[in-house]
Amino acid sequence: MGQPKLDCVTDNFPLMAASLTDACGAEPAWLCRKIFDWTDNSDLAGIATWLVDRPVKVLVIVLLAMVVRRIVHRAIDGLIDRLMSERSSEERDAVEAAEAATGTLRRDILAEKLANLRERTERARQRAKTLGVLFKSIASAVVGVVTFMMLLGEFDINLGPLIAGAGIVGVAVGFGAQSLVRDLLSGIFMLIEDQYGVGDVIDVGEATGTVESVGLRTTRIRDIRGTLWHIPNGEIRRVGNMSQVWARAILDIDVAYDTDLDLAMQTIKDVADALWEEQLEEATIVEEPVISGVQNFGSDAVTIRLSVRTEPSEQWSTGRMLRKRIKEAFDLAGIEIPFPQRTVWLRTEEDQKAPVKREGPGFQTGSQGGGTDDSD
């Protein structure tokens, strides 16, 4: 009688194990196993898994995704705030350096500089906000995709074909749009590093001009002739910004060799110092002008170099104004600026008809008319 009972119990173990696998899967959860142990009912264990265990896991995954998303967004906000603080500090240092160099700026000039500072800072702030929104959107998309994949895994959905298909699509898009991706990444880093902005005068190699628009894919530059250049950001290998924080105007002035060089340099220095003290709105010199000295000995002139530090984008107007005033000062001081001269000999019709003398070691075609000087 005892042997049949043992056989019956032994035969039931495989059935119970198969039922546990059918109810809870190959790796049964703790709750499913407990319900099955308590009730020996695979249907009840499966229902408990669907109604309690999996919803709890889904809730935990969603909560973790929200926490990760919030942490990433806070990190992005901190990065943007740090970039903004560095930019504002650079602009403030530029204005303070100008004030320290010039003593005290005129009230209207100082107001203009502060207005420009606020405009540039506001522009940088708007650009930083745009980048922040972009980065947050990318972070949210990545977190959302990862969360969705984890949720599908919790519902026993095979992710292998889905991942393989997404990989094939990603490779195809990557090969087809690699230039677009390169342009977008370059644009993002240009905006982050604040290499240039709207209104800056830049040199990108193929084009030089004023920036009219900065996008994630392209930059638009209008050159001095009015041509509007659309340049993909991925093709910009180098950038020379000629209007960021400060600029410098360098003038090479030629004088004749018989000029008193000390007098010429003092005259140039007096003109530059006078313009420095005026602090004109369109030609603001922020540091004391410097006479570098004799720069070159040319074929017909001695070159004297003058260097002045100006506000951004004002080096050209400052240079033009200095050249005009230096020319006027040279005229008053009697200092000559050398220029090419041409001697023209005029011959009349009678001179051309005069007989040719062929005696002696040489000959001449007759008398020549007087010479006149004509300057280019």
Topology overview:
Elements: H1 2-24, H2 30-39, H3 42-102, H4 107-154, H5 160-176, H6 178-193, E1 201-203, E2 208-214, E3 218-223, E4 228-232, E5 240-241, E6 247-255, H7 261-278, E7 290-297, E8 302-310, H8 315-333, E9 341-345, H9 349-353, E10 371-375
Antiparallel strand pairs: 1-2, 1-5, 2-3, 3-4, 6-8, 7-8, 9-10
Describe this structure in words.
- This protein starts with a helix and ends with a strand.
- The protein has 376 residues and is an alpha+beta fold.
- The longest helix is centred in the N-terminal third of the chain and has 61 residues.
- The strands form 3 sheets. Strands 4-3-2-1-5 form a 5-stranded antiparallel β-sheet.
- The protein has 3 domains: 147 residues, no CATH class; 86 residues, SH3 type barrels (Roll), CATH 2.30.30.60; 87 residues, Alpha-Beta Plaits (2-Layer Sandwich), CATH 3.30.70.100.
- The chain contains 9 helices and 10 strands.
- Helix 2 runs antiparallel to helix 3, helix 3 packs antiparallel against helix 4 and helix 7 crosses helix 8.
